[in-house]
Input
Amino acid sequence: MLNTNSYQAKQFNLSGLNGISDRTLEMHFKLYEGYVKETNKLTDKISEFLRDGKVDQEEVPAYSELTRRLGFEYNGMVLHEYYFGNMKQGGLGDPERTSGFFRAAAESFGSYDVWKADFVGIGKMRGVGWAICYENPANG
Output
């Protein structure tokens, strides 16, 4: 993991969206930039441990903690990129009732409204902060 490339924060032109204020977006952009910065910093620190091709026994606790932190920071960076990448000007918020997603949510949860209540509830949980919706390719 000898890092020679740093991650760069991507730019997203998302002002004026429906359902989320520019102020809230600016706060998220700053959080995202912090995740990018910390990902780079932790990657550099981990690379220092690996310069001699091994992690000595006395280095294991610090190395382990840096690696755990890197997972957290990297996930925060990537999840923000997915989050911003799914926003668009003129978005409607809820999907069309005839869309495949609307039907899949209704089939899985009994109704789209129950799915949405669950999804929003997870996003509001303390300590979690993320709710991700995806389709499991193994079982649809």
